[in-house]
Hints:
Layout: H1 2-30, H2 34-58, H3 63-69, H4 82-91, H5 96-101, H6 105-116, H7 120-130, H8 140-152, H9 158-189, H10 201-205, H11 214-219
Helix pairs in contact: 1-2, 1-4, 1-7, 2-9, 4-6
Amino acid sequence: ELLFIIVHQAFELWFREMVFELETVRNLMYAQDTHRARHLLHRVHTIERLLIEQIEVLETMSPQDFMDFRTNLEPASGFQSVQFREIEFLGGLKEQAFIRRAETEEERERLRRRFDEPTLWEAFCHLMESQGLPMPAGDAEARRTSLAKMAQDRDAFADLWYLSEDLLVHDELFSLWRQRHILMVERQIGSKSGTGGSSGASYLRTTLDKKFFPELWELRSHL
């Protein structure tokens, strides 16, 4: 039980750092400081790799050991991690339902603020437009054309291209953490329901297709 608590406390500490760094990255993009934004994204990547490796520590606990104290956790759940939702909201994965599920008014207010704030992608689009590449809301074709131009003329748009790659690494590593976490949950509880009332691993599997920057992934199909 101590192991479980310590690992999840460590997750929350790293989530706190990630929220701070990602907020700063977003603000730096609005300030057109791509070099510092990339530097901090590399820090985020390192943290995400550490989070993935940290799951191995949890897997040293057998399912039998976990079941010995699992009922003590109820109704606690990963749903309660406000910082995890802040990371998602900053990345553009905003859902009102998670605001309502927050336990306290202070937490709900934090998520409302993140919900209303610009995302990392909106900051990147602003940066694109500042360099003459239109990213009009609601015009997918125009945005795709601008992204393709950025990718195909890397000499002219090197800062943008390599920043977009760093954003994609963040997206990929966070997805890998989701996948690794799901495998750990299946290893520990199989198909049992989650302690917070979710359907457990089956619910988590529905989150695997979530992407922060789907337009950057889609760009690969048009190069």
